[in-house]
Amino acid sequence: MRDEVIITGIGGQGIQLMAKTLALAATRAGLQAMLASDFGGEMRGGPSQASVVVDDQRLRSLPILPAASSVVLMHHKHSEFALSRLVPGGLALVNSSVADPAAIRDADVVAVPALDIARAADAPNAAGFVMLGAYMTLRRLVGVTALGDAMRELVPPYRAQHVAANLRALEAGAGAVFAA
Amino acid sequence: MTSTAPARQLLDGCAAITESAIAAGCRFFAGYPMSPFTGLLENMSRRLPEVGGHCLNAESELEAVNMALGAAAAGARAATGSCGQGLALMQEAIAELALNELPLLVVNMARNQQDYFQATRGGGWGDYRTITLAPKDVPEAVEHTQLLFHLADRYRAPVILYGDPLIAQTHVSVDVAARDFDPLPPKDWALDGTSGGTGHSRQIWTWAMGKVSAPGPGPDRHWRAVAAKFDQIAHDEARSEAYRIDGAETVIVAFGSAALFAEHVVDELREDGHRIGLFRPVTLWPFPAADLAAATRDARRVLVFELNAGQMLDDVRQFAHDRDTVRFIGGVSIHASGLSYGPLLDVAPIRSRILEAVA
Predict the structure, then answer these.
(1) Domain residue ranges in chain B
(2) Is the ipTM of this complex over 0.85?
(3) Does the pLDDT of residue A35 top 80, yes or no?
(4) Which residue does chain A place closest to B348, by CA atoms?
(5) Which residues of chain B have pLDDT under 50?
(6) In chain B, which residues have their Cβ closer than 8 Å to the Cβ of A41?
(7) pLDDT value at position B3?
(8) CATH class of B240-358
(9) Which of A126, A170, B50, B239 fits a 20 to 30 Å CA distance from B247?
(10) How many CB atoms lie within 10 A of CB B345?
(11) Pick the CATH number of B9-174 from 1.20.1250.20, 3.90.550.10, 3.20.20.140, 3.40.50.970
């Protein structure tokens, strides 16, 4: 079992926390994970991207992925690199509240209106966790509970008030798509 | 927390090197922030006090390396670091450490591969060298950190860990545990801070003159002994890795992260039927000269890939079986921020440079 995903979007959307949550949950579950981040100096609005590779064997991976089996696209801006690395027919999970899924070619496109779902779950800042929940339903690397535990571990004490909303978003996202 | 980290953590390279250093018994660190080294200083400043150690945020790299020199002279397992720009400032102290036979780990969390000459030739005065290990990824950086502390103590010399932004910032699942090495001699040379009488009061270096009652070897014998020690290290401590070298007509030579990418390209090209392999110097100094000569004996071409204008190239030309087979396929490639690698460190450009060279 091996999974390579590039999560891409703009700074402030929670790209780095999503990626770290996935990598930590996989590590805690006894899998091997690699997380390589790439983001600009801006606090918000600049390019933000993270590559996560999960493997149940000894992990060998380049920190700059030559190819990825899936892409999670939080925003169309700055997404060129991630899409250029997606293998033909790979999974493109698209935040359709912001980006246009029809613009993506040669991929298995799954549209998730993450912002709308997050708002409905009373978690308007947690669209990223909606996407991560949906991604786990499709890829089944770890359970939603494991993601929740990893998120709880990563959120700093001064952000603890957001944990409950993040958990609601993960659950709502996991229920928003159907496993193949 | 205990000094030995729990099994299987998700750590970036800076955190992983910190845990490895602590597991090796490092209890003193001093540094001055500079990207991508800053993460190491931050981790050290958080973790060392938890295990009874000390970490000082110095006011400059000069101050940091000389603080670490002092801790090393007092017998502590000590370390400092920066990126290549900061190590440039530290050169005088590194030479003093080498010539006064003091062990110290210097981490060059470099921005790219342009510090090969700095690491392998040095910029201080005198006849000295610095053992330099260049890990290809975070797990190897963890291993090298402990090995370097051991080698520093064994040979009483400053040593360099040559990292980069990918090693500093990539998170991986790693197990950090203390490794076992052969026993080391006691540090009976360490200063004790007394005001006299012990022979180890406050100064290590007295031109090796000793005392009137107990004369030392003097500078000539001392520096000849130091030079002989580095000859011995050159003979005994070279390390390298040959990857898919059997029957290879083309041998790529690369170090550090560049070698990790080259390894991937070698796998791809082998799949396409190319007879190609990779030679990786693990120690940049001592350069694995004999291993390179053996690995390139049957090669039609030796292609050097490094992210600089051609520095290791000098050593490859010097030690390859046939220097006329050596070609350079690397180059300077810097990220727009100036703080990391540019687009040349990627599978597609490496692959196309190799294919161009073998055509």
Answers:
(1) 9-174, 240-358
(2) yes
(3) yes
(4) A66
(5) 1-5
(6) 337
(7) 42
(8) alpha beta
(9) B239
(10) 26
(11) 3.40.50.970
Domain with A74, as residue range(s), is 2-174
Each residue's pLDDT tens digit, A70-104:
999 999 999 999 999 999 999 999 999 999 999 99
CA distance A116 to chain B (A): 32
Rounded to 10°, the helix A127-139/A144-154 angle is 140
Q: Is the pTM of this model over 0.80?
A: yes
Phi, psi for residue B176 in degrees, rounded to 5: -110, 115
Angle at alpha carbon of residue A90, lines to A89 and A92, rounded to 5°: 115
Name the residue among A33, A63, A64 with its Cβ closest to that of B173. A33
The alpha carbon of B62 is separated from its chain's Cα centroid by a whole number of angstroms, namely 19
CB B249 within 8 A of CB B276: yes
Q: Does residue A39 register a pLDDT over 60?
A: yes
Q: Do B172 and A37 touch (CB under 8 A)?
A: no
Same fold, B9-174 and B240-358: yes
Average pLDDT, chain A: 95
**Does B264 contact A26 at a Cβ distance shorter than 8 Å?**
no
Please name the member of B8, B260, B337 whose beta carbon is closest to the beta carbon of A62.
B260
Q: How many CB pairs under 8 A join A and B?
A: 52
Measure the CA–CA gap between B144 and B20, rounded to whole angstroms. Answer: 9
Q: Is A146 within the bounds of a domain?
A: yes
Confidence at residue B4, expressed as pLDDT on a 0 to 100 scale: 45
**Sequence-separated (6 or more) residues with CB below 8 Å from residue B290:** B238, B319
Is residue A141 in a domain?
Answer: yes
Q: Total domain count for chain A?
A: 1
Question: Residue A108's domain is classified under what CATH number?
Answer: 3.40.920.10
Q: Is the dihedral of CA A84, A58, B113, B339 positive or negative?
A: positive
Dihedral (Cα; A25, B41, A37, B312), 10-degree rounding: -120
The pLDDT value given to residue A43 = 66
Q: Which helix (H) or strand (E) holds A28?
A: helix A15-28
| B175 chain-A contacts, CB cut-off 8 A | none
Question: Which residues partner with B356 through β-bridges?
Answer: none
